[in-house]
Fold this sequence. Notes:
Elements: E1 17-22, E2 27-31, E3 43-50, E4 62-68, E5 73-78, E6 90-99, E7 110-117
Parallel strand pairs: 1-7
Antiparallel strand pairs: 1-2, 2-5, 3-6, 4-5, 6-7
Organism: Plectus sambesii
Keywords: Calcium, Membrane
GO molecular function, one term: calcium ion binding
Amino acid sequence: MHLFIAPVINLKGAEKLLGTVREDQRVVTVSPEISLLEDTGPVCSYELTPEAAATDGDSVPFAVDVTDKQTGAAVVRVKDGSSLDCAVAVYRLRLKAVRCDDADAKSEGVSLEIAVKDTNDHAPEFDQPWYTVEVDEGG
């Protein structure tokens, strides 16, 4: 009989994972980086769900791609076909690691808070690349 321990997400002393992404980007910068405590892997996937306290019913527009099964390293990205708008400034999510050889062996959920940063959708447009003006300083 084999006993498998559930994976444990390593918060490296933090209370939660914090992510930031500009609304025109696809990859979320997460701090601390997603990883597991040593010898609690391998993981083949992560589950991402809304926090229980989340008030909006929107689906989660993010996915998590495992980049190293043993360490649990992963990248959070905007799902294909999804787009972000800073009208939803913060997503409060729960992240769980799923063990490769036992889909029922999941980590405890940890908080992942992703802030969406605004980009200037309405940059000024000019007819010429530069303008020259003279100002009389009343000397």
